Amino acid sequence: MAGPGLWAAIAAVLVVVIDTVVRRAHGWAREASLGAARRARLPPGDMGWPVVGAMWAFLRAFKSGNPDSFIGSFIRRFGRGGMYRAFMFNCPTILVATSDACKRVLMDDDSFGEGWPKATVELIGRKSFLTSSPEEHRRLRKLTAAPINGFDALSTYLGFIDRTVAEALHRSSEAGEIEFLTELRRVTFKVIVQIFLTEADDATMRELERSYTDLNYGIRAMAINLPGFAFHKAFKARKKLVSVLQGALNERRVATAKGILKSNMDMMDRLIEAEDEHGRRLDDEEIIDIMVMYLNAGHESSAHISMWATLFLLENPDIFAKAKAEQEEIIRNIPPTQKGISLRDFRKMEYLSQVIDETLRFVNISFVSFREAKKDVSLNGYLIPKGWKVQLWYRSVHMDPEVYPNPKKFNPSRWEGNTPTPGTFLAFGLGTRLCPGNDLGKLEISIFLHHFLLGYKLTRTNPNCRIRYLPHPRPVDNCLAKITKVSEEH
After folding, report:
1. Of 5, 25, 363, 385, whose CA is between 20 and 30 Å from 214?
2. May I ask which residue range the UniProt record assigns to the signal sequence (predicted)?
């Protein structure tokens, strides 16, 4: 009669055999149509189990607090080639983890189109920038770029950002213990709503903010629309957002029909009136999806980077002192007749810009982006088959010691006099799909850090709090802390 040890050994062997058979069968099913010659040119990797593929490993790595272990597992098994095949978000996928390969994919619009997961597309909107053709993408960028990132636009927004940040810091310093990240999200959301929906009242703002919080948790999830799953809650939040934005659109159109003119136009007004060279205007669905995308991107990244930059400054007193000295010098040179800082002063914040770039590299808010091969593409000796998804792992590029020596050290000085080689710094993407709000984002972050450096300190309640990496890296307590005013800023 076999003992317990033997049965355990037999069970273990059976598990390995079943796992191997299922993986090979799934791989064969996904790759058989390519034919032997094309299959032989695929990057190393495997498709894993049906439906889940590498998603369990991906979620496990990011929820364990060691997100780099996901790509690390491919490196251990298949070497440092930088390209691997996998099954992600229910699609055959090529993972790209080197700067040169990322650059080639991002710069080649003829071979690669957008390939975002179904959940992202459904939540942000099918008529946003995410799924548009290169021609449509250029059209949408042309209609929206100047009101977001143009010199005149930034000059207009700066005063409101400056006042909003100063008021928020003062209020937070009198509030006792706060969730620092939550407060920052409110500030950046107030700014972006002011730009897009000037007339939004406090109730509308709170409703939009709550909905965006729920929506954001579903963007990187699998598109399972069942109670209990992140996507289900996020999809309900999108419906609320669409309802609020459609209501605002209807009010604007009624006012226009009645000849009621506004004294100052916001982004919704500009989108309503936008007309391309062929006289074509945006329909309501296009306007709403563009606004959902901008409102989400326009506050989440800025708030998170502002928080992390603050924490890194506090953890590195020498960096804090250098950044503060720069801001003090800027204040000393402001003319007595000038109220607040100007865009010219913002352009002088060279070291603070390096702090922000290093935070963007180090934290990796946008850790991956998605493309799809429009045709068979040869890249670094491997085949990317037509129709396959491509994931560009920005996080791996930013933490590559061959690109950034000692990558786990926060070192803003690495950016001094250093213009990154294309493909090595991907915080805002690259090529025609470069983030359209990057200048506005850096302006918001800079203004916040300017005020914080000159007049405040932050004491965390749980300085060793665990980090959650999805959808964005953040302390699980949202950076519970107390802000203290240490001096009058200027």
Report:
1. 363
2. 1-27
